[in-house]
Specification:
Elements: E1 9-10, H1 15-23, E2 27-52, H2 55-66, H3 73-80, H4 84-96, E3 100-102, E4 108-110, H5 112-121, E5 123-138, E6 143-147, E7 159-160, H6 178-184, H7 186-189, E8 195-202, E9 206-219, E10 225-231, E11 234-235, H8 237-249, H9 257-261, H10 265-273, H11 284-287, H12 299-305, E12 311-312, E13 318-320, H13 321-326
Parallel strand pairs: 1-2, 2-7
Antiparallel strand pairs: 2-5, 2-8, 2-9, 3-4, 5-6, 8-13, 9-10, 9-12, 10-11
Length: about 325
């Protein structure tokens, strides 16, 4: 589907991305900032360090695996001739790290998680530190990502992508597993190869936040019209492919593309007035403050018809790595 404009519809603030796309062989026909809703929740991740077991831990874990019927920590201490208070302290640590289970008769029982780590690594995972991170459920990419910083609301005067395409089905943050946190948040919370995320706790409610992205209408080197979407400098490849597919289908009822990409008179006038110094000064901070009267949005109507004020309760649950391995 080919869109026609009486002039290029490119937001001046995107000049750096435009240059990048042009250097890759694309012809940029239109580009602007838009917004859409994502969900966000604060979680606390516990990161543990993998270390070799000491002799007391080895005695206890080996006994829990190999001695049948199992014995109590006092019985083990007596057999070894070791102070029972010392052994009880070691056992309590192993229990808090999810290596041992508390049984009704106080005998030693190793967890599936503890057995796996001990047998494969001859190690324990000892909690090292905690870190607060934000889980972000993105309906446009159908993914959950993590960030160190809280996502701030994009300006309400930006056009809402939700006016043009249905993007209101959020990935379930509450369905996150330890494996998800370990894999997705790896670069954020893990500092060493010997570290693992062993638990996480939900600290806040789920809130809906307006996220700002940039969207481009391009002509590639094969003369194909495509859509590319960026969050800051990073392309959202899944979202780009989704909207390119919709564009290629040519279903005008799905998205009114001309209206989506059309800039307001204020945006065009302002961009023209500063074009001669584009390579010297960044005007991101100026254009973000363009008055809302310049845009064709009814703030009260949009808020009334959106889920932007929706707040879901936090469960306060703590999730441990042993839950995944036990399953």
């Amino acid at each position: 589907m080919y869109l026609t404009f009486d002039m290029k519809q490119i937001d001046f603030r995107l000049s750096r991305l435009v240059h990048k796309l042009e250097s890759q062989g694309y012809q940029v026909l239109a580009g602007r900032y838009v917004r859409y809703n994502v969900q966000q929740m604060l979680v606390k991740a516990t990161i543990s360090e993998l270390r070799e077991v000491d002799i007391f831990e080895e005695f206890i874990l080996s006994t829990a695996i190999n001695v049948v019927p199992s014995v109590t920590i006092e019985e083990l201490a007596n057999v070894l001739g070791i102070d029972s208070m010392l052994m009880r302290g070691v056992a309590e640590n192993l229990q808090s790290w999810k290596f041992l289970e508390l049984t009704s008769d106080s005998t030693l029982k190793i967890t599936p998680f503890g057995k796996k780590i001990f047998e494969e690594e001859n190690s324990v995972l000892e909690p090292s530190y905690t870190q607060n991170i934000y889980a972000i459920a993105d309906p446009l990419t159908n993914q959950i990502n993590f960030d160190n910083t809280r996502l701030q609301d994009a300006p309400l005067e930006l056009k809402s992508l939700g006016q043009f395409i249905a993007i209101d089905k959020y990935p379930d943050i509450y369905a996150l597993t330890i494996a998800d946190v370990q894999n997705i948040a790896l670069d954020i919370v893990i500092r060493e190869k010997t570290q693992r995320v062993t638990s996480y706790q939900e600290l806040s409610t789920i809130t809906t936040v307006r996220k700002k992205i940039s969207i481009f209408y391009l002509l590639d080197s094969q003369d194909q019209y495509i859509i590319k979407i960026f969050s800051e400098d990073q392309e959202l490849k899944i979202a780009s492919d989704l909207l390119t597919e919709i564009l290629s289908a040519g279903n005008e009822q799905q998205i009114v593309w001309d209206e989506l990409f059309r800039l307001s008179d204020a945006e065009i006038t302002f961009a023209d007035s500063i074009e001669d110094i584009a390579d010297k000064i960044s005007f991101d901070w100026v254009l973000d403050d363009v008055c809302s009267e310049s845009f064709d949005l009814d703030e009260e109507t949009e808020l009334a018809n959106s889920s932007e004020t929706r707040i879901l309760p936090a469960s306060g649950r703590t999730h441990g790595i042993s839950e995944t391995l036990a399953g």
